[in-house]
Every structure is written in C-alpha cells, then in structure tokens.
Design goal:
CATH class of the largest domain: Alpha Beta
Order of helices and strands: EEHHHEEEHEEHHHHH
Shape: globular
Largest sheet: 5 strands, mixed
CATH topology of the largest domain: Nucleotidyltransferase, domain 5
Radius of gyration: 21 Å
Strand order of the largest sheet: 5-4-3-6-7
Oligomer: single chain
Distance between the termini: 43 Å
Number of domains: 2
Number of helices: 9
Strand content: 15-25%
Length: 262
Amino acid sequence: MTRGLWLCAACRAHVSVTAGTIFQDSRLPLALWFRAMWYVTTQKNGTSAMTVQRILGLGSYQTAWAWLQKLRRAMVRPGRERLGGLVEVDETYLGGLEEGRHGRHTEKKAIIAVAAEEKGRTIGRIRLRRVPDVSAQSLVSFVEDAVERGSTVRTDGWPSYQRLERLGYKHVIHVIGEEKPRATQLLPHVHRVASLLKRWLMGTHQGAVGHAHLDFYLDEFTFRFNRRTSHSRGKLFYRLVQQAVQVSPQPYKTLVRAATDG
C-alpha cells in the first residue's frame, strides 16, 4: 500500500513491516538502525551508549541506551542448539566483597552459571545465565536448558549437581579444595570464560551494569564469544538483523521499568 504499509487481507488494517519486531514504533529510519547494528557488530569488545550516540548523531543518550538494550535482546537466537560433547559447568560471582560471607554464600552479589564446551585446549561455545541461588533447582535447570542430554558434564563437588547423572548426563566430578590455582586447573575453560566476562564488563561498561539488565549483557557477551573466530563482520551483522525481526517489541517504558525495579 501507499506509505510503505501492508494491508491485512483478513481485517483490512494497515500494518507496518516493522510491527512485531524491536523496530516497532521507532520514529527514526531503519537505515539508521542498520548503521547502529553494523557498528555494534564490528566492535570487537562492544560499545557504550554514549559512543553510539556520538557516532550516529542521535539526539539523546536515552535513545542510544534504549537501542542497545533492544539489540541485546535480539542476540539470542530462538531455538538455538544446546551445547554438547564435553562441557564444563560452574558458577561465578559479580559484585564487591561481602563481610562475613565466604564461598557460595552471598546476599548482594549476582550469581552467574557458566557452561563451556571443551574442545581440547580451546573453548567451544558457551552459555551464561544469572541464577537466584546455587540450589539444585537453579543449577540443574540451567544445565538442562544449556546442555544436550547424553553429554559429559564436568563440575566440582557441589552437591546441587548430583542429580545430573539421573537426568541422562555423564557426570564427571572434580573435587576442588580451597586453593584457587587448583580450581582453575581442573575447570580451566569456565574459569577462563568467567575471567573474560568480568574483564569485558569492567573494560567496556566500567562495571556499571545493574542486576536488572545483567542477563542481556550476558547474552551480548555470549553472542560475541561464540562468534569470536568469524572473519566476516558482515555475517554477524546479518545474523543480528535476522534475529531482530524475531524478537517482540520492547517499549522504552518497559526497559526503564526493568532498570528501576532492579
């Protein structure tokens, strides 16, 4: 139809081609969105909202921030394959020191479950998720969503992982003592991923990521890490555009409410 709209054959309503995507209700042209997506995917370590605002000449910081939040929600491909083969699983923590709290006991820190495929000495694909606690319900649920059944899952001796064998996984347990170097040697891949994640959050985002939006930053890190060996930035851009049209609209007020609630 005129004005670039589609006509619904059933109800005769005029519908935009961007309806039902993260581009819905945007007042800025799609070409500018594509420039933003190209810039985001061509930066090895990602970028900040302030930089996107400056590069694209956007009128406000809030617009750049909202665009990046929406793009992060498009970095998870619906129905993506689970990890397989030999997979290391562990948890890491984000946050400052808590007086009187040791080991897995925390009240303020964010707990992040990490799964990493072991490909010899190298790391294959990864999965990350913020979990509420280190109970069997939280950690086993993460493994079920992230790792294909029948795979070999390597963990430390934390009791919450004991159910994995009954659920169809080959469970290899490495009991880790208090010595940190030993932990990094027995589960080197997940510890490497956790270290890179924290360095990325501190370097690119200056550690200013709140718990409310942490899941989406984890999605961005996973998106970048799993495509780190790709020599074609164009493929990353194409993949992000492809997934952006499969993600439901994310109104600005919803993004702000999530930040406030967190």
